[in-house]
Design goal:
By secondary structure, the protein is of the alpha+beta class. The protein is built from 13 helices and 29 strands. The structure holds adenosine-5'-diphosphate and magnesium ion.
Length: 516
């Protein structure tokens, strides 16, 4: 039975597995495409359409179509559709179910075990939400893997024979992130530093193009109501400018038509003009890239051997040109839209293999390796390889300084600490016969120890022995797993929006939905 890798993208999602020749292969959907738009159209509270048809329906019924749901992952936001409230986890689960159904249509097998990828800068709540989305879809989520690691795996880091450092530049549909990885001689992968922007992707390029096109339209038809005031026109413009943008990656100019309020404009845009009106967006990605390289230098990685371009938006020629200009090194662009799904499939295979071995089932591990066409040498390589990951963000505990009368965050785990990480801290009761100490675990989102630079991710109560005097000490050990889950003394903390019961209820609901 195959194990799967899923790139649950902001704008497009893909599913892959390792085929009988040992190569990762992306499963085409029933429309024949390798990427399915991450759009969900709610026909009824229990009936949805996912993918291209949903994205197209957005033109006529925008209020019934959900897209960019990945940006809401880990946030306490819900959407009401046909009277039912849906969480981001559930909506993502619907996308996953569609990918699973496409695999079933092609192979007859329903995926159960899968690795799902997330941007490297996703914090604990977002990673947990992604894990829960998988569970709601009925998957056994083997791991939640950072997209740059997945990309590096599919770009051949699997076969590293010498130590090297890699810069991954991932410009997708809704997010940008850039990561420096070091691949050790033994194949171990270290995440050295990572930075990103949660709302910078192809969609922003589309928006610039839309503004440009609409301005030209208004110049030609000054009397008509503004096209952005009509949601149907907005959706129509969105799909037209995205198509125009793709053409501009190949051609020097493109003409698109805008129809609104009975008026038509044919607007011609050159690639040069497009690059001019989006230059500051590209600048931002370059600034973030320089910052991630500077941080890597502080961690003794001062030479980058390879620059990998990932994400559909990295197909825009300006990206490679600009990186070559500022870094003096040409990036590699190969399969940027599918690299993440393929790498996730390779990771799913490796993890499953290593898990079987560690569970004392070498025969099963070997048959999996044979099924996937691995040679004995490749098998040995995988068996001995481990991926070292670092915490994307730091964690601390909210403390009150009575003398200065201010709150600050006492650090527990620093960003870029090797995972799994643990830290033990002592807490003291403040009055006699105190029954428990309440602690609030904060995830760092800014630079300082100020609570404003953090967000609350979990709360816990530490019980105290009866009749404890003020100042009683309690030692507590915090842990962060490789997948980013938080635990106190081995007990998982609820860092996501959903409890285990809510996940189960959502799974039952989704299982009974009709998903096309
Ligand atoms: P995500 O993982 O964020 O969903 P993808 O990596 O699938 O994103 O990239 C999707 C983005 O790539 C979309 O904004 C799409 O318009 C853009 N894109 C895809 N192909 C091209 C192309 N040839 N030129 C420019 N942009 C492209
Ligand atoms: Mg992506």
């Amino acid at each position: 039975m195959a194990v799967y890798g899923i790139d649950l993208g902001t704008t497009y999602s893909s599913i892959a597995y390792v085929d009988a020749t040992g190569r990762p292969s992306v499963v085409p959907n029933t429309e024949g495409d390798h990427a399915t738009p991450s759009a969900v159209y709610f026909e009824a509270a229990d009936k949805v359409i996912v993918g291209t048809a949903a994205a197209q329906t957005a033109v006529v019924e925008p209020e019934l179509v959900v897209d960019l749901i990945k940006r809401a992952m880990g946030k306490h936001e819900t959407l009401v559709m046909h009277g039912r409230r849906f969480t981001p986890e559930e909506i993502s689960a619907l996308i996953l179910r569609r990918l699973m159904a496409d695999v079933e249509a092609l192979t007859g097998e329903t995926p159960t075990d899968a690795v799902i990828t997330v941007p490297a800068y996703f914090g604990t709540p977002e990673r947990l939400a992604t894990m829960q989305a998988g569970q709601i879809a009925g998957l056994n989520v083997i791991d939640v893997l950072s997209e740059p690691i997945a990309a590096a795996l599919s770009y051949g880091a699997l076969n590293a024979s010498s130590e090297r450092a890699i810069l991954v530049y991932d410009l997708g549909g809704g997010t940008f992130d850039t990561t420096v990885l070091r691949i050790a001689e033994d194949g171990d992968i270290h995440e050295i530093s990572t930075k990103g922007h949660p709302a910078l992707g192809g969609v922003e390029w589309d928006e610039r193009l839309a503004e440009y096109v609409v301005d030209r339209f208004m110049e030609e038809h000054p009397g008509v109501p503004h096209p952005f005031s009509d949601p149907t026109t907005v959706q129509d413009i969105r799909s037209r400018v995205e198509e125009a943008k793709r053409h501009l990656s190949e051609a020097e100019e493109y003409t698109l038509r805008l129809v609104h309020a009975g008026e038509v404009s044919a607007v011609t845009i050159t690639r040069a003009k497009f690059e001019e009106i989006t230059r500051d967006l590209l600048d931002t990605t370059i600034e973030i890239t320089m910052a991630v390289l500077a941080e890597a230098r502080e961690r003794d990685v001062d030479h980058i051997d390879q620059i990998l371009l990932v994400g559909g938006s990295s197909r825009m020629p300006a990206v490679a040109a600009r990186l070559t200009e500022v870094l003096g090194q040409e990036p590699i662009l190969h399969d940027p839209d599918l690299a993440v799904a393929k790498g996730a499939a390779l990771h799913a295979l490796e993890e499953t293999y290593r898990r079987l071995v560690s569970l004392g089932q070498p025969a099963e591990a070997q048959s999996l390796a044979r099924f996937c066409g691995l040679s004995p040498e490749q098998e040995l390589y995988i068996a001995n390889r481990s991926i070292h990951r670092v915490a994307g963000r730091g964690f601390g505990v909210l403390c009150h300084d009575a003398v200065a009368n201010r709150y600050h965050v006492m650090p527990l785990i620093k960003s870029d600490d090797l995972l799994p990480a643990s830290a033990t801290r002592t807490f003291y009761s403040s009055y006699d016969s105190q029954k428990e100490i309440g602690i609030q675990i904060m995830e760092q989102v800014g630079e300082s120890d100020d609570p404003a630079d953090h967000r609350l991710v979990a709360a816990a109560t530490l019980p105290l022995p009866p009749d404890s005097p003020a100042g009683t000490a309690v030692d507590v050990t915090f842990q962060v797993s490789t997948a980013g889950a938080l635990e106190i003394e081995g007990i998982p903390l609820q860092t996501g929006a959903l409890s285990a019961e809510e996940v189960e209820a959502a799974r039952d609901y989704v299982a009974n939905m009709r998903i096309a």
